[in-house]
Amino acid sequence: MRLFLGVDGGQTSTTALIGEETGRVLGAGVGGPCNHVGAAGGREKFTRAIKESVGEACRRASLDPASVRFEAACLGFSGGPEDKRELLRELLRTERLIVTTDALIALSGATAGEPGIITIAGTGSIAYGRDASGRTARAGGWGYVFGDEGGAFDIVRQALRAALRFEEGWGPATTLHSALLAATGASSANDLLHRFYTTEFPRPRIASYARLVDAEAAKGDAAAADILRNAAKELAAITMAVHTRLFRPGERVRAAYIGGVFRSAILLDAYRGLLEMEVASPAYGPAAGALIEAYRAAGLSAPLSNLPEFKT
Fold first, then answer.
1. CA pair distance 259, 266, nearest whole angstrom
2. Which pLDDT tens digit goes with each residue over 65-83?
């Protein structure tokens, strides 16, 4: 029996799926976060996450983690693949090793391996696409300093700016001011601004307040609603940029979306309305996308079955 491995390595957790050549998933496992190997303690954290996730998947599939060999393994990472490939060669026995980005496996899972576009809006944002010939294109994903428009961090940045303008008397009234202060314990928007520059508020924590912006918009705050609609415009823009580079004008393309930002009904409705293409939630998650890419590397196109219930 030929075995295949797909791994989604993220900043919060690592998910592994093992499948056999018909597409049936035999086992799944979850480990800790793995991102930049070069950071302090990064190599140890990465190794532990891979061993935990793949080891658990092997045990659930009644396989020995110490001796299992894969026909092909695909692993996608949010921190990029460059610093991980050699380490993975030490950790895994596989005939074909594909180390790639989280955008590719998210796309492959979202479209079940078919051509299309995935727009990811979590803490940051990026759009990524692939056409029928295998050509790929991306837009966005420049990081929180120079880009990531429409992502959760950017939404909160715009919310704090609106609160600061109101506090200083040169912006319209907004409930974002009181909501942000109540959620963070800050004494003023200016105080919160300075807190956001400290290690007490890492980017993921700041980005988590995007839910607060959505809540205030749902209550009728105009500034919050404008922020979400503008975020939708930015996300639609990068989606359309990928479409223009890969597909003909008017060509029907499946556009999928993933990420916590799209949990906002206001933003999602605006995003759908701006795109002249089919917009759908993902068929599968990124780990399943990585497994599909492992099959692709071996020249197989196997429909997935027996996927685990937890989100992959």
1. 15
2. 989 999 999 999 876 677 7
Give yes or no: residues 52 and 133 share one domain: no
- Asked if 35 and 181 sit in the same domain, the reply is no
pLDDT of residue 69: 94
Residue 43's pLDDT is 80
Q: Quick: pLDDT tens for 121-157.
A: 988 999 999 999 999 999 998 888 898 999 999 999 9
Output the pTM of the full model. Answer: 0.85
pLDDT digits (tens, 9 = 90+) for 203-214: 889 999 999 999
From the list 302, 228, 222, the residue with the least C-alpha distance to 265 is 228
Is the separation of the CB atoms in 192 and 160 below 8 Å? Answer: yes
Instruction: Specify whether 87 is located in the same domain as 159.
Output: no
For residue 128, is it within any domain?
yes
Own/partner contacts of 60-68, CB < 8 Å, gap of 24 or more, are 60/26, 60/27, 60/28, 60/29, 61/18, 61/26, 61/27, 62/26, 62/27, 63/3, 63/18, 63/26, 63/27, 67/93, 68/3, 68/93
Domain residue limits at 82: 3-111+284-297
Please give the Cα distance from 98 to 76 (Å, whole number).
Answer: 8
Name residue, tokens 């590719």: 104
* Under 8 Å between Cβ of 137 and 246: yes
How many structural domains are present in the chain?
A: 2
CA distances from 10 to 41, 49, 122 (A): 16, 10, 12
Judge if 97 and 20 occupy the same domain: yes
